[in-house]
Write a structure and sequence with these properties.
A two-stranded antiparallel ribbon has the order 1-2. It is an all-alpha fold. It has ten helices and two strands. The chain has one domain (about 5-215). The protein has helices at about 5-25, 30-35, 45-65, 75-95, 105, 110-115, 135-145, 155-180, 185-190, 205-215, and strands at about 70-75, 150. The mean pLDDT is about 90.
């Protein structure tokens, strides 16, 4: 067994390396470099990206659960029911919003079967029901699940690092979306909250339709 401080340090480094690699592979810079030099690799890029993302998590999860460290806090009584209820609502929201995404493109199957060599995502700009309330619903659901768990030292460290990554990652993702969709996405950003839903920063279905059409 590692001492608690050593295991936390190893866990922190593992998360930082994972997120740095994940961000680099998701960036337009890396995609454009690969597309220019090895275009035949592009149809399999998304599939490869997803495989690396999943496999890279496995050693981190092993560190997290095999060396949890001391308990920082745990929910009990009514607070446990509330925390678990919020987490279940977030999981339900995640599965509900799956219907609004092109699963074949997300997994990379469409790019593979169509032998797509372009860098840009193939989905056109659209605003789903969840995106009318927050720009990054999956990140929001993930944060809700993370922060309603019992917290060991390792889990708290992971929660802080993941939260920081979601904040930074959402901004990096939005730079790509601006590159893809231009002023339409900029106008959308000005009207809808980023990670935490705000009652005064939501749009109606009609407003979403107008933004998608470029009239909003």
């Amino acid at each position: 067994m590692f001492p608690d401080s050593a295991s936390l340090a190893i866990l922190l480094v593992a998360w930082l390396v994972y997120f740095a690699l994940h961000s680099a592979l998701a960036s337009l810079t890396v995609k454009r470099w690969l597309a220019a030099r090895h275009p035949d690799f592009m149809p399999a890029y998304r599939i490869g990206f997803n495989i690396i993302a999943v496999l890279g998590l496995l050693p981190i999860l092993w560190l997290l659960f095999s060396h949890p460290g001391p308990v920082v806090w745990s929910w009990s009584g009514l607070s446990a029911y509330i925390a678990n209820g919020l987490a279940l609502a977030a999981v339900a929201g995640f599965f509900y919003t799956l219907r609004d995404y092109d699963g074949s493109e997300f997994l990379g199957l469409r790019q593979w079967f169509n032998q797509t060599r372009t860098v840009e995502d193939q989905e056109c700009f659209h605003i789903t029901s969840a995106h009318r309330f927050v720009r990054h619903p999956w990140y929001s659901f993930s944060l809700l699940i993370i922060w309603t768990r019992d917290m060991s030292a390792a889990m708290l460290l992971s929660a802080l690092v993941m939260t920081a990554y979601f904040i930074v990652g959402s901004r990096m993702e939005e730079r790509k979306l601006i590159a893809y969709h231009g002023q339409r996405y900029r106008r959308y950003m000005g009207k809808v909250a980023g990670l935490v839903p705000l009652p005064w920063k939501t749009i109606s279905k009609a407003e979403a339709t107008a933004l998608v059409s470029g009239k909003g």
